[in-house]
Each structure stands twice: as structure tokens, then as C-alpha cells.
Q: What sequence folds into this?
């Protein structure tokens, strides 16, 4: 193509201008291959085996001949110029929050971040860990309250705080029992009272009922009550503390083998037998006290007579 029509010093510039006028990298490569084939037979421009087309027989490797008057006499330089002029520059994209920021291509959006699934897994693990920590703290708080309550029970096991007042079990009068019933209207007091009753139970509902009633009331107070009430005695079924006792026992012993009706019958029998036993105990105590008083009086009379009979 050169054909000695152009001077040697302008040939390189002409060649570069042709390369840069190409519309695409592919067309430039095709033109470069054609030019190499054209001047491959010229003695002044021996071909380079790295730049020949694939279907061209490669010659033996020899040193490139360069002319001092040419600044761009190398095919490698031409290819580098062409690639530098047509290549695209890639800039890294940075994901900031939900938007995609890039110095040049800031309109490009990524479908999803590569670490999205890992972030979700990490968030789930952290959430599960927080739930476990919260459950452990709640359990520790409950255990600490239980330990403190047991410590209080050991110091004064029969002391019960009703909020505005404090009751000392067993109760010694009907007025104290009325105060306890009034305090049990408050939910927090009722819950603590139910918890105390649960600690007093054993494995049998009848014996548990009898023990709880003896824990709460003294015999002198119990003899003023019956299960259903009479003309001279009050009905314990109308007392709020007795409803709490029955509810606590039901929560403890109700199961598939024992229904609620059977438990109610057991409670009634245990309550009636307890009041009967308390009445007998009080009567026996009064009888013993009376006999003791009579014996004391008789002894005093005998002693006084001996004093008068003595000389």
C-alpha cells in the first residue's frame, strides 16, 4: 500500500491516522492485519510473528529493524495506540445504603448486594441470640425472686404481707380473717397468696386442704365456721380466701384421671372433717381447762382446811 508514493517520514503518521479513523476495534484489527500482509514482502518492514494473522505462515524470529527517523515504526506501538484509543475505562461501584454511587456510571443499579444473604443470616442469628439472652434474664429474675421469698419464709415463715397490713398466720380472730379477705381483692396480693398456698401442698388434695386450713386459722376461729353455714356459724364458702384455696388445689391436682367434680367433693369432705375435728379439739381443751380449774380450786380448799384444823 505504501508503494513508495509517500515519503518514509510521513508513512508512520499516515498509518496512525488510518488506524484512528476506524469506527471500532474490530475494524481496526482487520485493517491492521491487511496492512501487515501488504508490507510483509517489503524488505524494509519484516513482519512480527506476534502480529501476523492466524492463517499466515510465520517466519523465523529476527530482530526488528527500526529506522532512526521514524518515531512509530513498531507494530506493537500501533496496536497499543489503537487499544488505548478504543478501550473503555471501568470504575468501581460503591453501594452506599440503598443507592449505587459511582464516579461516572452512577445510574447503574445492582440487583442485590453479594453479602445480602449473609447479612440476613447474621441478623437472624443476632435476633435468636437476643431472644435467648432475654429468656435467660427472665428466668434468672424469677429464680432470684423465689430465693428471696424462701429466705423471707425462713426468717418469718408465717408472715404474709397484704400490702397495707401484715397478717401473722394462723389468724386468731374473725376480724383478721376479714382483713385478709379484703386484701385478696387486689390481684398482686391474690397471686402471692396463691403461690404461698402452692408451697404448702403435698401429694394428696384432702390432706393439703386440712393442712392449709390449719395453717391459716386457729381452732378458736375455725369453730365459728362450717362449710355451708348455720344460724349461729358462718359459711366458709362465702370467704374469698377459701375460694383461693380451692383454686390453688384445683390447679395443682386437676388432671385427666381426676375431674373437677371429684376434686370438689374431696374439698367438701376435707373441710367438714377439719371443722369437726377443730370443734372436738376446742371442746376437749375447754374440758381439760375446766377440770384443771376445778382441781386447782379443790386443792386450794383442802389446803385451807388443813390450815384451820392445825393447832
A:
Amino acid at each position: 500500500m505504501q508503494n513508495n508514493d509517500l515519503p518514509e517520514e510521513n508513512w508512520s503518521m499516515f498509518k496512525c491516522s488510518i488506524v484512528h479513523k476506524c469506527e471500532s476495534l474490530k475494524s481496526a484489527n482487520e485493517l491492521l492485519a491487511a496492512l501487515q500482509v501488504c508490507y510483509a514482502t517489503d524488505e524494509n518492514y519484516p513482519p512480527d510473528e506476534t502480529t501476523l494473522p492466524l492463517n499466515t505462515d510465520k517466519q523465523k524470529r529476527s530482530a526488528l529493524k527500526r529506522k532512526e527517523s521514524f518515531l512509530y515504526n513498531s507494530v506493537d506501538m500501533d496496536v497499543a495506540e489503537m487499544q488505548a484509543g478504543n478501550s473503555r475505562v471501568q470504575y468501581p461501584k460503591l453501594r452506599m445504603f440503598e443507592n449505587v454511587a459511582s464516579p461516572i456510571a452512577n445510574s447503574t443499579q445492582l440487583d442485590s448486594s453479594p453479602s445480602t444473604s449473609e447479612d440476613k443470616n447474621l441478623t437472624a442469628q443476632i435476633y435468636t441470640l437476643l431472644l435467648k439472652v432475654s429468656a435467660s434474664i427472665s428466668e434468672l429474675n424469677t429464680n432470684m425472686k423465689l430465693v428471696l421469698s424462701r429466705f423471707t419464709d425462713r426468717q418469718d415463715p408465717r408472715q404474709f404481707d397484704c400490702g397495707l397490713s401484715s397478717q401473722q398466720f394462723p389468724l386468731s380472730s374473725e376480724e383478721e380473717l376479714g382483713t385478709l379477705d379484703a386484701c385478696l381483692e387486689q390481684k398482686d396480693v391474690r397471686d402471692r397468696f396463691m403461690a404461698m398456698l402452692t408451697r404448702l401442698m403435698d401429694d394428696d388434695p384432702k390432706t393439703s386442704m386440712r393442712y392449709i386450713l390449719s395453717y391459716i386459722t386457729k381452732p378458736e376461729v375455725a369453730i365459728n365456721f362450717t362449710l355451708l353455714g348455720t344460724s349461729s356459724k358462718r359459711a366458709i364458702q362465702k370467704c374469698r380466701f377459701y375460694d383461693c384455696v380451692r383454686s390453688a388445689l384445683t390447679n395443682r391436682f386437676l388432671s385427666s384421671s381426676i375431674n373437677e367434680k371429684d376434686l370438689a367433693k374431696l374439698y367438701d369432705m376435707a373441710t367438714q372433717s377439719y371443722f369437726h375435728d377443730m370443734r372436738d379439739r376446742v371442746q376437749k381443751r375447754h374440758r381439760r381447762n375446766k377440770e384443771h380449774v376445778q382441781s386447782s380450786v379443790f386443792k386450794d380448799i383442802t389446803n385451807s382446811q388443813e390450815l384451820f384444823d392445825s393447832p
Remarks:
- The longest strand covers residues 94-96.
- The beta strands are 94-96, 99-101, 159-161, 166-168, 225-226, 234-235.
- The chain has two domains: 8-86, 158-306.
